[in-house]
Design a protein that fits this description.
The complex is a heterodimer of chains A (about 150) and B (about 400).
Chain A lengths: L3 E4 L5 E2 L6 E7 L5 E2 L17 E5 L3 E10 L18 E8 L4 E7 L13 E11 L3 E10 L5
Parallel strand pairs in A: 1-10, 8-10
Antiparallel strand pairs in A: 2-3, 3-4, 3-5, 6-7, 6-9, 7-8, 9-10
Chain B lengths: L2 H6 L9 E12 L5 H16 L8 E5 L6 H4 L1 H9 L5 E5 L5 H14 L5 E8 L17 H9 L3 H16 L3 H15 L13 H6 L2 E3 L2 E2 L8 E10 H6 L6 E7 L30 H13 L8 E4 L4 H10 L8 H6 L16 H5 L3 H17 L12 E8 L3 E8 L1
Parallel strand pairs in B: 2-3, 2-4, 9-10
Antiparallel strand pairs in B: 1-7, 1-8, 4-7, 5-6, 8-11, 10-11
The chains are: A mainly beta (about 150), B alpha/beta (about 400).
Chain lengths: ~150, ~400
């Protein structure tokens, strides 16, 4: 049975392969960038307020820090309680152009021992989990040069 | 230290003091009962300590818990009802881990405004087993819900990120982190209200299971049942009440961050962008203490002891720097020099800290001030910091809540 691919959150990312990007927004008045996206009001207190336009974020950044989850997180994180817990890695990535840090899960197979602060990583499409009808998609960070 | 000495250091902003007449706690642990019971025990202890009849309290301020159903959201009234309705003014406040500081701030504001002479402040919680989790339902507009749904990012995950970052930037080691636990467990062993009362060795920390790399179970605070309460009054009431030289609250900082907030904070998935606006010179955490110092007209060099929010061992080292007890990156050195241990220049977490208590969210910032009160009175028994005159607390609540209290005697 084929599942429908659905983003875990609508409009936070788009594209496939090399074209995959996180989607923020940019204020037309002050150029402030927001991720997760702000679509109503600019949060810069010194800005009179401008239109917020969708803005893809940089594909690559540098590892700010990383950790992993050795124990099963509570809901609403989805995992099968029947299966043994498999730790996943979290990476916080500093985007140079946007001057911000964005958190994400690492691509499957990337462990904390594979990472160092300052290492270059890129955003890639990923799967958060699957259920009967749906493949829930997300973004992953992966060291540049690592194989998929 | 007297007011003149403080003024000589540029302390023009002493905005007025309130007296701490009484402090009380319910022992912390996993007791399996409701938060109201814990809060009432702490409240009665604080009232007895103050020598104040509940019926003469003019205002009650409750720090809310999100885990007790509706009564938890209206904690002030819940505690007032349990103590027996007597007509007092009531407030209930919530600011996550900073709720206790908001409650103290509300009480102090009412006293300084002349709206009440005596105010009872109470915070209590009955915590779940395991990780804290967000409220249920499908709520993609809530960053706290999103970080669990999208990333599975628990609180310890953020503690792990901060710890790893310190290791990379400042050269901190796992052994440094373990020594924080060793220090705090030794103090907690002396505290009758602490949940964990056994000394811990560095080997025991290293042998405990990794929860969120690089942090281990004994690097991370537990979640607890517990309660703390304070009776605050005007200085004039304290004098009339026969307490001419009480511990005094001199400053309460409840600041928010400034945009752009460039340190990744729970429960956020990203920081603000600094591309359009240059960040302020100091981080949010550093600004919390800075505001308290400015309000009190003192500096870090005046501090005798500090109670900080050691959600993790690594975070305690961060607070040393954010409180100005040492320079950036020097937290581990300050620890190893013994400055923050009992008998050191500025003991930190003489209570045993969250390492020994665990988190009882609405009670914790109040409990920090209870410890300052006992220390500044010289009544802390085997934990006593000799010559304690000025104490500072530091704490931070989810969603941008600063919390720092300075008490003096």
């Amino acid at each position: 049975m084929s599942r429908t691919r659905t983003p875990v959150v609508a409009n936070w990312f788009t594209g496939e392969g090399e074209g995959f990007r996180l989607l923020g927004t940019r204020c037309s008045a002050c150029a402030a960038v927001f991720f997760p996206r702000e679509d109503v009001h600019c949060r810069n207190p010194g800005c009179g307020g401008g239109d917020l336009a969708e803005a893809p974020l940089s594909r690559r950044g540098l590892v700010w820090s990383y950790t992993d989850g050795r124990y099963r997180p509570p809901e609403p994180y989805v995992s099968d309680p029947e299966l043994p817990w498999r730790p996943y890695t979290l990476i916080a990535v500093e985007l140079e152009a946007e001057r911000m840090v964005v958190l994400g899960q690492a691509a499957p197979g990337v462990h904390v021992d594979d990472l160092e602060v300052g290492m270059e990583v890129e955003v890639v499409p990923g799967v958060l989990h699957e259920d009967g009808e749906t493949t829930w998609t997300t973004w992953h960070w992966r060291p540049v040069g690592a194989s998929a | 230290m007297d007011d003149l000495a403080l003024a000589a250091r540029g302390g023009e902003r002493v905005t007025g003091e309130v007296a701490v007449l009484g402090a009380g706690m319910h022992p912390w642990g996993k007791w399996g009962r409701g938060f109201v019971e814990y809060g009432v025990v702490a409240a009665r202890a604080a009232l007895a300590d103050a020598g104040v009849d509940w019926r003469s309290v003019g205002s009650v301020v409750g720090a809310d818990t999100v885990r007790g159903g509706y009564p938890g959201y209206v904690a002030g009234a819940t505690f007032a009802r349990a103590l027996g309705w007597q007509g007092a003014r009531v407030s209930s406040v919530y600011a996550a881990c900073a709720s206790g500081a908001q409650a103290i701030s509300t009480a102090r504001t009412q006293i300084l405004a002349g709206m009440a002479d005596v105010v009872l402040v109470v915070g209590a919680d009955a915590a779940p087993k395991g990780f804290f989790r967000p409220a249920g339902g499908d709520r993609p507009d809530d960053p706290d819900w999103l970080r669990f749904r999208v990333l599975g990012a628990t609180n310890p995950a953020y503690f792990g990120l901060y710890a790893r970052r310190r290791m990379a930037v400042h050269g901190d080691t796992l052994e440094d982190f373990a020594q924080v636990k060793v220090k705090n467990a030794a103090s907690g062993a002396l505290n009758e209200y602490a949940r964990y009362r056994k000394p811990v060795t560095a080997d025991e920390v290293a042998a405990s299971a990794v929860v969120a790399d690089p942090l281990r179970l004994l690097d991370i605070c537990a979640t607890s049942d517990g309660a703390a309460a304070l009776v605050l009054s005007s200085m004039e009431f304290a004098r009339r009440h026969g307490a001419p030289d009480p511990v005094r609250v001199r400053a309460v900082s409840t600041v928010t961050p400034t945009y752009p907030n460039t340190v990744l904070d729970l429960p956020d998935i990203a920081t603000d962008s600094a591309a359009a606006v240059a960040p302020a010179g100091r981080t949010f955490r550093a600004s919390i203490a800075r505001a308290a110092y400015e309000e009190a007209g003192i500096g870090p060099e005046d501090v005798s002891l500090a109670e900080v929010y050691d959600l993790s061992t690594a975070l305690e080292l961060q607070w040393y720097e954010d409180l100005g007890l040492c320079g950036e990156g020097e937290g581990a050195k300050l620890l190893h020099d013994g400055a923050t241990a009992p008998g050191g220049r500025v003991p930190v977490n003489s209570s045993g800290g969250l390492a020994s208590f665990g988190e009882a969210v609405p009670a914790q910032a109040i409990a920090q001030v209870c410890e300052l009160t006992w220390q500044l009175r010289g009544a802390a028994g085997a934990r006593q910091v000799s010559g304690a005159r000025v104490g500072v607390t530091a704490n931070q609540g989810l969603f941008g809540h600063g919390s720092s209290v300075i008490a003096v005697r």
